[in-house]
């Protein structure tokens, strides 16, 4: 059975006037249900990740400051959100959702978090609307509990997964791959195990060519026994921040390439949604929903 993490706490920051398009985290499950793609029993509600779990990939002092709401003003500005209890709780739900999503992926082959992909949060800092890094925490959870030995993180958000790279620098058990806009945020990049930087304006043909060639090499060399996929849809030509020219069909084919590769090799994959900033919310939601449709078709749920 396909299992999907979703919790209404994901949209609480909207009630405080934040201008980040978090409404998609509510609309994605609604659209999945409306189209009959999934049923209510496919969803599970995450709990608040505890302090020790948050520290699996983050500095204890930094996590304590988050829990106590005592981050200094400079760090709050770096994150981009006014710090609040509901915002910290939201991140804790996301972390728990991705951990349990990964555990469901071990059981069923694939699982989703309707939010997550908070890849700008590093070991001891938050950045770019990310307080903590859900897939990094889940990665260390799987490793610490003997559920995986070699993990590949595939980050196809238009922005580099700098926080993920920072957390796993020189970690032999985790291979970080980020394919992102060369001139996009963050402007000071971290070093992933493999970075593929793309020029502004890249279209479907060149984007998919780069992805295909790198995926073949990644799976052959890394030989992972678990994959985390950050499936940001800010690569779309309609995206306000992306600067690329990838079509909806190109984005859909991107998802097919990643998910089908995992399916063919029998490697469990957890998917978090990542970014999406198109002018029309429908374009964002449709692109994310397409990722679910692709997975369901491949896994024949």
From TrEMBL:
<protein>
    <submittedName>
        <fullName>Histone deacetylase</fullName>
    </submittedName>
</protein>
<dbReference type="InterPro" id="IPR023801">
    <property type="entry name" value="His_deacetylse_dom"/>
</dbReference>
<dbReference type="InterPro" id="IPR044150">
    <property type="entry name" value="HDAC_classIV"/>
</dbReference>
<dbReference type="InterPro" id="IPR037138">
    <property type="entry name" value="His_deacetylse_dom_sf"/>
</dbReference>
<comment type="similarity">
    <text>Belongs to the histone deacetylase family.</text>
</comment>
<dbReference type="Pfam" id="PF00850">
    <property type="entry name" value="Hist_deacetyl"/>
</dbReference>
<dbReference type="InterPro" id="IPR000286">
    <property type="entry name" value="HDACs"/>
</dbReference>
<keyword id="KW-0378">Hydrolase</keyword>
<feature type="domain" description="Histone deacetylase">
    <location>
        <begin position="20"/>
        <end position="290"/>
    </location>
</feature>
<dbReference type="InterPro" id="IPR023696">
    <property type="entry name" value="Ureohydrolase_dom_sf"/>
</dbReference>
